[in-house]
Amino acid sequence: MGTGVATPLKWYFWKWFNSLCWPGNRRCGFLLPFYGASPHHHLRGGAGPLVELECIVIELKNVFYTYPGSDRFVLRGIDAKVECGEFIAVIGPNGSGKSTLARLMSGLLLPARGQVLIDGLDTGTPEAREEIRRRVGLVLQNPDNQLVAVQVEEDVAFGPGNLNLPPAEIRRRVDESLEAVNLSGLRARPPHLLSGGEKQRLAIAGILALRPRYLVLDEPTSMLDPLGRREVLRVLRNLAQSGISVILITHLMEEAALSDRVWVLADGGLAANDSPGAVFSRPGMLRELGLGLPFSAELACSVAAPGVDVPTGIVTMEDLVCFLCSVLKQTS
Ligand SMILES: Nc1ncnc2c1ncn2[C@@H]1O[C@H](COP(=O)(O)OP(=O)(O)O)[C@@H](O)[C@H]1O
Ligand SMILES: [Mg+2]
């Protein structure tokens, strides 16, 4: 009886306590269970040891990388941090090292110099590699290369099935992952009959079923139509809000505008690491790199005229609408 009452009470306490940390409250130095810190802890691992969880979870420390057989450093001295539940967009010209960075962050490549730390685990430590691969999910450009089964739910079950989990646990993970990407209604469909956006969401579900803490996505929307892109972006935003850190590599400025922070890669280094508003207030720097502005920022700039000051930080459609309304009020 005692346990029957205590368990729900404990659960509510943890739910409340964890909600202090996720999302929005970015700097949480509370004592948390290492896993299960999110109110959406079903997307994470089971209960783990208590550790002091600083909110910085991925750290790149003076990272250099050169491909074997080359004497050119593709990345030179990258220093950057990802906090829990943060949505980072990585932009940069072709060949600037974005995909290389994605592979370094997921432990597929090791830095030539410096360190990549995932929850304090060094990707260069052989004993940590398996755990790092479990914690960091990598989603690639072409969803067709990431789907393996003849039915949606089988595809999601493939990863957990390889972990030799009990059937009930696999079913639970499949259900939760499909729900997280809004594909529950298509669970019996063959993947080849899905749209591009649905296929990419299925690829994300397959990774979520492995319960990663971090998702690194290398241009996951580049082969999708606008609707597919919007669907994937919505899923990514929701995942970030549930506490999974999302690192999205993209060549679309509109997608970068939706992130919490933008890393601009250029010439082997980070040319900028700031909020979308701050990054897109530097059109000169971006144009020099062959990058543009989000449509809203471009349009706002084109309204500039004597007597009409364009504020910095217009990056989304909502920002643009607010700005245009204020201009209309001023001029009417
Ligand atoms: N396997 C490889 N071997 C040698 N050089 C490579 C390899 N993969 C990428 N590169 C080089 O590394 C640089 C960065 O590539 P990449 O990370 O793919 O850039 P991005 O994703 O920004 O286009 C490019 O100059 C590219 O030619
Ligand atoms: Mg690339």
How is the topology of this model organized?
Elements: H1 2-19, E1 31-33, E2 50-52, E3 56-65, E4 75-83, E5 87-91, H2 98-105, E6 113-118, E7 121-122, H3 129-135, E8 136-139, H4 152-162, H5 167-180, H6 196-208, E9 214-218, H7 226-241, E10 245-249, H8 253-256, E11 261-266, E12 269-274, H9 276-279, H10 283-288, H11 295-302, H12 317-331
Parallel strand pairs: 5-10, 5-11, 8-9, 9-10
Antiparallel strand pairs: 1-2, 3-4, 3-6, 6-7, 11-12
Bound molecules: adenosine-5'-diphosphate (ADP) and magnesium ion.
Adenosine-5'-diphosphate (ADP) is lined by residues 67, 70, 74, 92, 94-100.
Can you characterise this structure?
The protein is an alpha/beta fold and about 325 residues long. It folds into 3 domains: about 1-50, no CATH class; about 55-275, P-loop containing nucleotide triphosphate hydrolases (Rossmann fold, 3-Layer(aba) Sandwich); about 295-330, no CATH class. Helices cover about 35% and strands about 20% of the residues. It is built from 12 helices and 12 strands. The strands form 3 sheets. A 6-stranded mixed beta sheet has the order 8-9-10-5-11-12, sandwiched between helices. Strand 6 and strand 7 form a beta hairpin. Helix 4 packs parallel to helix 6 and helix 5 (about 165-180) packs across helix 6 (about 195-210). The longest helix is centred in the first third of the chain and has 18 residues, at about 1-20. The radius of gyration is 21 Å and the shape is globular. The structure holds adenosine-5'-diphosphate and magnesium ion. Magnesium ion (MG) binds near residues 98 and 99.
